[in-house]
Amino acid sequence: MKALLLKEYYSNQSTYAATFIFFAVAAWVIGDDQIPSFVSILFVGVYLFSTSYVDDQNNSHILINSLPVNRCLVVTSKYISGLLVGMLLLILTIVPNILIPGYTPLTEIALAAAAIMMVIAFYYPIYIIFGHRFMGYVFSAVLIGLLVMGPILSKTNVLDTIVIFIQQQSTVALMTGVTAASILILILSWMISVRVYVAKQF
User: Fold this and answer.
1) Average pLDDT of the segment spanning 166-174
2) Residue 61 and residue 21: Cα distance in Å, rounded?
3) Would you call 78 helix, strand, or coil by DSSP?
4) How far apart are the first and last CA of the chain?
5) To the nearest whole number, what is the mean pLDDT of the chain?
6) What is the largest CA-CA distance in the chain?
7) CA-CA-CA-CA dihedral for 5, 142, 35, 157, to nearest 10
C-alpha cells in the first residue's frame, strides 16, 4: 500500500502542485471575509479528474497491472489519496476561517467532509466503468449546471429552506448522521470500484 501511495504521489506531483496553487488563487478571489467550503469540494473534483487524466495519458493502469500487485490495493490507494488531498484542502479552507470571531466551524467541517467523501464515492466507480472521457462530459455538465442553476436557485427560497432545515437540527445528530451516511456510501462505492476494477481488462 505504501508503494502504491508513493506511486500516486510521484506520478501526480505536477497535479498536486497545480491543484493547490489554483485552489489558493480561487480562495483568494472568491473568499471575502471567509473562504467558502465549496471551494475545497470543487477542487477535490478537479484533483480527481486531473489525476485520472494523467493516469490515462501515461497508460498507468496497463503498467501497474503488469506488475504483481493486488488490484484491490490499487483502487484503495486512489481512494486514500483522494481523501488525504480532500481533507488537506478542507483544513486549508477552515484554518483561516477559524480566525474570524464567532465562527463555529464544526457543522461546516462535517458537511464539507461529507461532501468530499460523496464526490470521491461517485467519481471512482463511474470513472472505472466508463473511463476518463465520459468523466470529462460529466465534469463539464456539472460545471455548466452549477453556472446555470446557481443564479436561478439564488432567486428562489430553496437554499434558504435547506439552511433553515439544517439549522433546526441538533448539531451532534446532524454531524453524526451525515458523516455516518457518507462513510457508508464511500465504503459501498469502494466495494463496487474494486469489483469492477478486478474484472476489467487492461
Assistant:
1) 70
2) 27
3) helix
4) 21
5) 81
6) 56
7) -140
Return phi, psi of residue 173, to 5°.
Answer: -65, -40
Position with higher pLDDT, 100 vs 22: 22
pTM of the predicted model, to two decimals? 0.79
pLDDT category of residue 163 using cuts at 50, 70 and 90: low
Q: Which amino acid is at 202?
A: F
Q: Could you list the beta-strand ranges (E) of 68-142.
A: none
Contact 47, 123 (CB under 8 A): no
Please determine, for residue 21, whether its predicted confidence score (pLDDT) is greater than 80: yes
How many other C-beta atoms are found inside a 10 Å radius of the C-beta of residue 96? 13
Q: Check: CB of residue 145 under 8 Å from CB of residue 77.
A: no
Q: 133: pLDDT confidence band, cut at 50, 70 and 90?
A: confident
pLDDT at 94 over 70: yes
Mean pLDDT of 77-97: 87
User: Phi/psi at 155 (nearest 5 deg)?
Assistant: -90, -5
Please, is 165 exposed, middle or buried when counting C-beta atoms within 10 Å of its C-beta (0-12, 13-18, 19+)?
Answer: exposed
37-42 own/partner pairs: CB under 8 Å, 24+ apart: 37/90, 37/93, 37/94, 37/108, 37/111, 37/112, 37/115, 38/112, 38/115, 39/89, 39/93, 40/86, 40/89, 40/90, 40/92, 40/93, 40/112, 40/116, 41/112, 41/115, 41/116, 41/119
